[in-house]
TrEMBL record:
Domain of life: Eukaryota
Lineage, top ranks: Eukaryota, Viridiplantae, Streptophyta, Embryophyta, Tracheophyta
Record-given protein name: Uncharacterized protein
Organism: Arctium lappa
């Protein structure tokens, strides 16, 4: 009888001890992983080219000014403080009707008092092929009057986890009468 109790007690202690270990495990703050355990093998470099349609005019505008600073003197300054929210189409060719490969969602704001210099904060959300659903995050300076503007790619999601790189923007066309622009983007990304 006594033997049986001690066996039971031992089992109870063992169960308690294991659940204690499990509890400790589930509260663990950090641990080391191998890169392979996340499927990260060889880092590769990819180049993407697409066209960004900044449509500011008409009923189907995709770039909408949401903030205009009261101190902004629109005739004299660079629009410092203006914020525009975008959900711009990204297409494979420069025509608006060409195949959609993704959208640029985010915002740009005039961040320079004395020249045209935008701060771009946006995600490219791709819909093309295996990249459907993957995103790249861009945060950088866009001096729109320069022929080529370079912006850092600070990360990504999906197929672009752990990515980094840069995007080069050059204006393909600008409609002086309504403000719509088409911008060619060449994007160089290191990713797994
Ligand atoms: C705006 O979008 C609507 C709905 O997709 C479409 O019917 C209309 O033709 C578009 N208008 C312009 C000016 O593109
Ligand atoms: C805005 O700038 C214009 C051109 O420099 C100037 O004539 C005007 O007085 C300024 N307006 C204000 C409210 O500062
Ligand atoms: C992209 O993924 C969405 C959601 O999973 C799906 O509805 C859509 O059809 C896909 N598009 C393409 C072009 O594969
Ligand atoms: C530029 O905008 C004007 C006014 O909306 C439009 O009539 C014209 O077709 C546009 N030009 C081009 C090349 O798209």
């Amino acid at each position: 009888m006594a033997k049986l109790i001690s066996k039971k007690t031992a089992i109870i202690f063992a169960v308690l001890f294991i659940s204690f270990l499990v509890t400790v495990e589930s509260h663990q703050f950090s641990r080391k992983l191998s890169q392979r355990s996340l499927g990260l093998r060889k880092e590769k470099l990819s180049h993407f080219r697409f066209y960004f349609h900044d449509i500011v005019s008409g009923p189907n505008a995709t770039a909408i000014r949401i903030v205009e600073a009261t101190r902004t003197n629109r005739t004299a300054t660079t629009g410092f403080g203006d914020i525009t929210m975008i959900d711009n189409p990204l297409t494979i060719g420069p025509e608006r009707t060409s195949r959609l490969v993704g959208r640029a969602q985010g915002m740009y704001t005039s961040a320079s008092l004395n020249e045209m210099g935008l701060l771009m904060v946006m995600n490219y959300v791709f819909v093309e092929g295996k990249y459907n659903g993957s995103t790249l995050s861009i945060m950088g300076r866009n001096p729109v009057m320069s022929p080529v503007r370079e912006m850092p790619i600070v990360g990504g999601s999906g197929l672009f986890r752990f990515s980094r790189g840069y995007a080069q923007a050059s204006t393909h066309s600008f409609n002086m009468s309504n403000g719509d622009a088409v911008v060619e983007f060449n994007v160089y990304v290191l990713h797994y």
